[in-house]
Amino acid sequence: METLTIPVINPITNELLYSISEKSDQAIDEIYEKAHAAEQTIQKLTIAERIAHVVNLKEWILDNSDLIIDKLIEETGKSRFDAFTSEIFSVCDVVDYYKGHSKKILKEEKAHTPIMMLGKKSRIVYEPLGTILVITPWNYPFVQGFVPSILAFIAGNAVIIKPSELTPLKGLWEKMLEETKFLVNAFQFVYGGRETGAKLISKRPDKIHFTGSVKAGKIIMGEAAKQLIPVDLELGGKDPAIVFDDVNISRTVNGVMWGAFTTSGQSCTSIERLYVQDTIYDEFVKELVDKTKKLRTSNEHRDTQQPDECDVGAITSPAQIKIIEEHLDDAVAKGATILCGGITERGSHHMLPTVVVDVTHDMLLGYEETFGPVVAVMKFKTEQEAIDLANDSNYGLSASVWSKDMKRAERVAKAIKTGNVSVNNHMLTEANAALPFGGIKDSGIGRYKGDHGLHTFSNSKSILYDAQGSIIDPHWYPFTATKYKMLSEITQAYFRKSKNWLKFAKNGLKADSIGKKEQIK
Ligand code: ADP
């Protein structure tokens, strides 16, 4: 029996699209039974065969991009351009990267064997974990559902995906799997809310890949800890962008504006804190405000689908609207000034892109994730001050540094405590599938993409091969005085890197001969 109906709403029009329900215990059991059965089939496939399935998905995505984008707009309210670049383009790019690199990433590796283990061989093999549970958020429902799932699958796992109840994309996923004849039950999309998510965790998946809020991430990690389920947590951010006074102001304003307002700022790597050097501060802020006012928003298209020309879409989650408003109210109450945008209609999904100045780190806008089309602008004088301000945060997901002086940009990029930095651009690390992505501090645990993208869904197993024969190792029984003396001499010679190799070699030979003689018969 399914309980509690959850409505899925179009944020642009506020119309009810359809409803989903929390899953029963029995339904969850059946899902795991199917996943475990699918594991067997997937593990028998070669990597090339798994890749072929994933490439079919990519072809389908290219053939059906308009359909996917329409569905994304309907459920998230994002602009058509945002839906295209961050969800369609990026998933195709990830597929292409892993098409070319998976075999190498998952290949058995030879590892170094120390001289003390002469004659033995060391290997690392990457084996599937089993069933991976992917729990996704509402802001990038297609890419966040798709990318971790195909990576887990290429690594040989079955995948259970619990999409966000706000943007489940129900119907779309099923159409994709059916029309590509994707391996049965390799991916299972399970619709529901937190209750369903919690039930799925309770059945002990072999790993959880979670993207979402810090609050939910902490609860999920707590639940996972009870059964020692490994987790990757991709959580929130409060991205700083540092702008030095040698930049091309026009280009940088355009870049920063995109970094702050893309997907209406509902990206964990969008710019939330903008630090501008005092010498260009006034000019920079003026241009930022002038240009921000020219952005075309979902506000103008409330009763239609977003046209191609809409820059900034709607706010997807009603709960997020409240948070954004709370941050703005708090900032204004504490002395900040809104230069454009702001709350024009309380509770509305359509918020104008907003530039706020005179912000401090004592305001919610200065330290909590706002996750809306709002950029908090602050001033700095010196390089060290900019670094200190950027690092004064509980988050550490991504950041950007803008300067013509590449030496300085590199220095600052390395000094920021975060998982990703882009120089003279923003959130571009995330767009390169070859780079590991993830955060530090409250921004999460673990990395995916790059080699990590497959290793995180693998059991990295170490195997050490020794030969059969009559000789035993000197550290085996029986423990004798001769062996003890000889081992202690070898240890001294070896670890002090003594030049007395002759003695070392002699001891080595002695060890062999003792290994033959001194055995328990
Ligand atoms: P948001 O809705 O702001 O993205 P969440 O981080 O709460 O925030 O939700 C992200 C995903 O995590 C959603 O799919 C949601 O259903 C799921 N989720 C939230 N809380 C839990 C929980 N306690 N257990 C399992 N899944 C959860």
The profile of the biggest β sheet is: 7 strands, mixed
Radius of gyration: 28 Å
How far apart the termini lie comes to: 66 Å
Extract low-pLDDT stretches: none
- Which molecules other than protein and nucleic acid are bound? adenosine-5'-diphosphate
Structure annotation, total helices: 17
Class by alpha and beta content:
alpha/beta
The overall pLDDT, averaged over residues, is 95
So what's the overall shape? globular
How many DSSP E strands? 20
Strand order of the largest sheet: 12-13-14-11-10-16-17
Query: Share of helix among residues?
Result: 40-55%
Strand content range: 15-25%
Annotation keywords:
binds adenosine-5'-diphosphate, six-stranded mixed sheet, 521 residues, single chain, globular, seven-stranded mixed sheet, alpha/beta
Question: What this model shows, in words?
Answer:
The chain is an alpha/beta fold and 521 residues long. It contains 17 helices and 20 strands. The strands form five sheets. It has a seven-stranded mixed beta sheet with strand order 12-13-14-11-10-16-17, sandwiched between helices. A six-stranded mixed beta sheet has the order 7-6-5-8-9-19, sandwiched between helices. The protein has a three-stranded antiparallel beta sheet with strand order 3-4-20, with no helix packed on it. Helix 9 links the parallel strand 10 and strand 11. Helix 3 crosses helix 4. The longest helix has 26 residues.
